[in-house]
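Thread: "does anyone have the structure for this chain?"

Original post by V.I.:
We have the sequence but no experimental structure in hand. Need at least a predicted one for the grant figures.
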Amino acid sequence: MSNKNPLRVLIVEDDHNWRGALCEMYKDIVYPDEVILHSAASGPEAIRFLENEKYDVLSLDINLGSTHPRESNEKPDIGIPGADGRTVLRKAEELSGCNSVIVITGIHIDDTLSFFLTGEEVNVVRMTLQIYLNETFPGNHLYLMKMNVKEKPMREQIDIFKEQITRERLYSISGKINKFIKNIDNTWCIRYNGVEIHPKHAVGFERLQYLIQNPYKSIDGTTLARIGSTGVTDEKIPSAEVDEGQLIGQGLNIRDTNNEFDTTIDLKGRGEIRKKIKRLERELEDAEEFGKDSSEIEKLKGEIVDLQAHLNPQRDTKESPVRKKIRDSVTKSINRTIDSLKKMHPDLADHLDKSIQRGYYVSYNPEKELDWKFE
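Reply from O.Q.:
Generated one for you, tokens below.
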């Protein structure tokens, strides 16, 4: 699935090797279809990019070349060959050309520099790089210290940078991270693919949130039925406040001795099984990587399959009318909510429609794992 609203990154770095390494770094941090990269080898080239396009992230070296803007009250010529990272930052602020800044430079964050600040007049202000970033891009910046390659090879530094930036953090500072948050005013804040909407509350949103919080897991209909308020549909659905005694009175005992409403394993037991599956998968990965005996590999595969079957059992062909009623009601509430999104956010509606498997069990199975913020 192509990303219709990819992360737009402008990399400004005068060193050819560093520029190439940073381009590869950003490609490694995010999925290939999630990012559009432009690179500039000088300040004037970067400014031309900013004058024509808006970026989510400006990745910038402060010290571009050997010259810097003149430290005087005279307004610097934007087009001069020596326009360095400080000039680019000022121009990015002036044009609102980027949402966030990642400074990757050999200049220390506590070093005091001259910055040109625009207003009715252009003034030169002396301040540390940290103070400037805090005031100009509050909450939307990162600083990474570049070392001499003789002290630490460039590839090692890139590996450290990747650990510090991370995909989630990159999306967070750029303001493009996905959100699915319930507000206190009975509305929702939902952001997907960079587009944010604020729909009114419906029980379907709570069920969608629960599914998205538990990706690739099969959720029993009775579990989803307890999420949200009652009275949204004609069917009688147990609310989140209904205890087991009330469920028994309504004929909805999920621990029925005939296992008709059995969710297979309690939550703690399911968690332990998932942990064991992950451990076995790591063992299987190591066994295949190091070429261990095929019989050992097959044994590990068999154990994983058995546990997965125990975690997600096949549907019992005998389904009671009560359980079917609950399942149908949950499915209808989810479908209605997705339908309501088609006008507000077509991309999100399409994503949810394709990613949510409905049936005896319901699950959120996106084509690729996405980062979501829930509070």
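V.I.: this helps a lot. The two ends are 27 Å apart (CA to CA).
O.Q.: and The longest strand covers residues 98-105.
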